[in-house]
Amino acid sequence: MRWLKKKTYPEFWTSYLEHFKTKTKDFNTLRFIAFDTETTGLNTETDRILSIGAIAIKGHVIKVSDSYECYIKQAVFNAKVVKINGLLKEGRLDKIDESTSIIQFLEYIKDSILVAHHAAFDVAMINAALKRMNLPKLKNKVIDTGRIYKKTKYVKNDKHYSLDELCDMFNIRMHDRHTASGDAYLTALLFLKLSSLLRKKNKGLKLSHFLDWI
């Protein structure tokens, strides 16, 4: 009977899963991926991803040459968000379909640890796209820079600090704000600033220092 058959997945998904069979514990050799999504809105069920921007961090260095960016064809259009991210339904940017963008993103991130600001939303948007492809959720560990800041600075209030606020606090010059690649780069810079604080506090840095926030 069909329901007894083992569920099979496409080759790109099994290839993605293969990367998680080997675990690296040395913080200096871990590959982190700061990423951001621009979307048609804030509803993870009905809105869609407009663009994905990502950049790698390894050995406390941002690897500009190791980055990813894509723009996605819009099946859902919200004119209001154009004022924020400038992404028109049509335009001169080369755009790919959602499935292709997710396949490329998985090939890029592999088993890297994902870093995002208010990460739950970005991860939920990626997972929603995976669900539409009949695939499971992301397997990567995720670090939220907003939560790291609150723990590192012993902030006990319930306020959600925006990326703008934290960039201002840490004297990070903002450029390309509200573009996926620009916000990914700003998040990478913020992550390095916060990692430096943790390194000084713990006289070194291990992945376990982030475990409360993964």
Protein described:
The protein is of the alpha/beta class and 214 residues long. The protein has a single domain, classed as Ribonuclease H-like superfamily/Ribonuclease H (Nucleotidyltransferase, domain 5). Helix content is 37%, strand content 17%. The chain has helices spanning 11-18, 79-85, 98-109, 119-132, 145-152, 163-169, 180-202, and strands spanning 31-39, 49-58, 61-71, 113-116, 142-144. The chain has a 5-stranded mixed sheet with strand order 3-2-1-4-5, sandwiched between helices. α4 links the parallel β4 (113-116) and β5. The longest helix has 23 residues, at 180-202. It is globular. The protein starts with 10 loop residues before the first helix and ends in a 12-residue tail after the last helix.
Can you give me a brief rundown of this structure?
Helices cover 37% and strands 17% of the residues. With 214 residues, the protein is an alpha/beta fold.
